[in-house]
Each structure stands twice: as C-alpha cells, then as structure tokens.
Amino acid sequence: MGNICKTGEKIWANLILSTLFKKIFFLLAIGLACAYPPPPASFNRVEYGKASFYDIGLAGKKTASGEIYNPREMTAAHRTLPFGTWVRVTELSTKKSVVVRINDRGPFVQGRIIDLSNEAARRLGILNKGITDVKVEILKLPR
Asked: What is the CATH topology of the domain spanning 46-140?
C-alpha cells in the first residue's frame, strides 16, 4: 500500500512541475516578445498614379492631422503615409518635381494617389490640367 501512495505522489509532483514549467516558459516567451519593438511599417518607396489638388475653398479647414489647410504651403494628402512624411512628386510628362509634407488623408478617388496643395500644384505646373500622372517618392518618414 505504501508503494501506491508513493506512486500517486510522484504522479502528482510530476503534474505540478510540468504545469509550472509550462507556465514559466509561457511567461518568458511573452516577456521576450514584448521586449523587442515591432518591425517598422513597410511602405513602397515609389508609387505611380494620378495626382490632383485641393479645391481653394478648403483653405482654413482642418486637415486629418489637425493642421489648418493653407493653400500656400507645400503639403499634400496621402491615404496611408504617416503625417509628417516628406515626398517628392514628379510630373511624368514634364519631369518637374516638388517636395511636399503629408498632413492630410486622401484622395479617395480611384486611381489617384496624392492630393496636392494649390502651391504645390502651381509649382508642378498642373493647375490648368487638374489631374496628371506622377511618381511619388518617399524622402523621409517621421520619427
């Protein structure tokens, strides 16, 4: 009878130790996973598509970033790039380019990849075109 008790105690002790080791391993794994920051978001460095520009009537309105839209600043809207990202926009037919800072969301029209401020559109030479084919290159992501 003494052997049965000792066998039961061994099984119980092994079960407790096994459960304890599993919990310790799980906690260590979680701790290590949290110790390293996630990898930075991945963005295409270059995009091709159509650019348009803001209606002048939006001057003084709040952008998605909370900034007030000023048509004389070199800013733009992009659907996914973080606010504060600097990009170069090149008009494909003339090769003219401008550098703008992303401070708004949009455009939400199929095929368009960036909405430019009026000043950026003027410098790019597209005020009369309205919409044009462009290349957008990321120059600097915000910290």
From this structure: Barwin-like endoglucanases (2.40.40)
Domain boundaries, the chain: 1-36, 46-140
Task: In whole angstroms, give the CA distance from residue 36 to residue 54.
Answer: 41
Closest CA to 93 of 50, 36, 142, 60: 50
Residue 119, helix vs strand vs coil: helix
Q: State how far the Cα of 33 lies from the Cα of 39, in Å rounded to an integer.
A: 12
Q: Using H for helix, E for strand and C for coil, what is the string for 16-56?
A: HHHHHHHHHHHHHHHHHHHHCCCCCCCCCCEEEEEEEECCH
Measure the CA–CA gap between 18 and 2, rounded to whole angstroms. 24
Model confidence pLDDT, tens digit, residues 88-138: 999 999 999 999 999 999 999 999 999 999 999 999 999 999 999 999 999
The three-class DSSP label of residue 81 is coil
Q: Is the pTM here over 0.90, yes or no?
A: no
